[in-house]
User: Fold this.
Amino acid sequence: MMTLYGIPNCDSVKKARTWLEGRGIAYAFHDFKKAGLDAATVSGWLRTQPWEVLVNRKGLTWRGLTDTQKAAVIDADSATALMMANPSVIKRPVIVKGATVVVGYDIEKYEQTLT
Assistant:
């Protein structure tokens, strides 16, 4: 079973859900604001995706951090701590299918890895 991690009101998450549903692809939705995230899940993502991909440095949450907080994110451990404290800083959606992790709304990647 595939899992889509995100928040329901995010435009990219909505697009991804529509894309999956339009192709009849079954998935479980995990709202990480309501259901939370654990470090093991984030660690699993980091086995296939660099932290620089997972941390959305263009979003409002990142821009709302202090310069000190931003400067402290220098490796996977510090990025994990930030993502655990501020899940909204995670680039969305994160789709996990077996060992495959796809970050963001990317139809080309979806076609290659999820169908």
